[in-house]
Amino acid sequence: MKMKTSLSQDSILLILILNVFKVVSNQPLHLSPYLEQGNIETAKRDSLVNDPTRVIPTSYSGLFTVDEVLKNHLWFWFIPAINSDPKAPLVIWLTSGPGCSTMLNMFYGNGPLKLTKNSNGNDSYERRVNSWAQTFSMLYIDNIVYTGYSYSDSGNKGIKTTKDYYTQDLYSFVQQFYKMFSEMKEKDLYVGGVGSAFKYAVSLAYKIHEDLQAKRDNILLKGIYAGSPLLDGRTQLRHIYEPFYSLGFISYKQMINYTQEDEMLNNLNEKKHYLNLESVIYKMSNLSLENINTFTLSPDTEINNVMSTDAIKSLLHVGNNTFELCNLEIYTQSADDVYQPFQTTELVTLLENYKVLLFTAVFDGIISSPGLEAVLMDMPWSMQSAYNDSVRKVWREDNVVKGFYTYVGNLCRVVIHNAGMHITNDQLNVTVQMMEDFWHYGCISNTPQ
Q1: Where would one find the signal peptide in this protein (predicted)?
Q2: At what angle do helices 163-180 and 197-213 cross, to 10 degrees?
């Protein structure tokens, strides 16, 4: 793959030398054996992403074996904070779908890279001026196997779509990550992601919390966060038509009819109901559910093109593995788990002990504010009454409205203005400021604790 700026002769020579000395390999880089043998520095050296163009910031990539029986291998891309702040927290990012790679957010969200075209018109990438990785050490993890470059030696038997199993894999991953990057254990940890991945984040954070309570670990877990979080599919999707009605896309009669049809589908087959909702709403509105204010869709094809090149595979140490941006089979298998209500006790426990940030977007056609609010207002935590009686505050700067927020107890609830489902892409700088405020103050900066 050619970069937007042409490679110098020295860079081309360096790539040739790296090829000769086996930095480029047909085999993916498995790091677990290094850790078992205590070869930590070798693991870091071999996983370093050596981009001769320096478009990609200093980072590390490889796979951890998280299930020795099934031989499940989860791929990651770790980018230490670009600003080199010694206090920069570690932020784990997980992606929804379910079954989609975190590379969707790397190139079309909060990552330090964005898509472009090179001089030949081919899909390529360049450095963003700003990103979450500027301030935070970002750890992008592709779970479940067969998303991104993650895979299993057991084939489809390795796919885990139920809570206990994917939590076990993620927990194993985190333990190995801290063994390899022990310096990160001194940093604050925030776990989160987008959409249904919030279930993964809550389950992982709760497992870490249990270890902390039992004094089995000393991870500095400080909070969890999620954009467009799917907490309770049954409840949230029941309110899915309300934003369309309030914005004038459908009439009151249409909203009632569609809601009644959904209730019938829901009673017949919850899984079928969940899988068919997207096509039903698209036919209803002829709009993209990703952002009902635009016809723009996420650049899935372009990301696949970039991530499937020999050059990027070489840099990321994934051998000949096939890249899967979104795996339809995992999406289908996960529908039952996604649609089930949250383990409320886990989320409530985390709410009582750690900071929690939940943010949605005004123009998200799937995870809307009314649906999320219906879940939050019925969640039995100590500040439920205070939250239910709270009022939104306007988040503005220089007369520009960035969004709206509520801050009650440990819960920071934010609604981002002028954004759709891909909030970090639509309003990147706003979400950077939001995360920095969440880190320092617990919510938007004019409400510090």
Answers
A1: 1-25
A2: 60
Per-position DSSP letters for 318-373, written without gaps between them: -TTPPPBSB-HHHHHHTHHHHHSPP-HHHHHHHHHHSEEEEEEETT-SSS-HHHHH
Q: Cα–Cα distance between 189 and 339 in angstroms, integer? A: 28
> Cis (ω within 30 of 0) for the bond into 144?
yes
User: Which among 192, 185, 187 has a CA at the least distance from the CA of 224?
Assistant: 192
pLDDT for the residue 119: 86
DSSP string, 224-289: EEEES--S-HHHHHHTTTHHHHHTTSS-HHHHHHHHHHHHHHHHH-HHHHHHHHHHHHHHHH-S-T
- Per-residue model confidence (pLDDT) at position 265: 60
- Residue that the structure tokens 């196997």 belong to: 145
Q: How far apart are CA 25 and CA 361, in angstroms?
A: 42
What integer pLDDT is reported at residue 272 of this predicted model? 52
Q: Which residues contact 381 (CB under 8 A, 6 or more apart)?
A: 348, 351, 352, 409
pLDDT of residue 159: 83
**Whole-model pTM?**
0.89
Give yes or no for a contact between 292 and 363, defined as CB atoms under 8 angstroms apart.
yes
- Closest by alpha carbon to 55, among 109, 149, 131? 131
C-alpha distances in Å from residue 221, one per residue of 132, 138, 177, 357 = 19, 15, 15, 14
DSSP element (H, E) containing 196: none
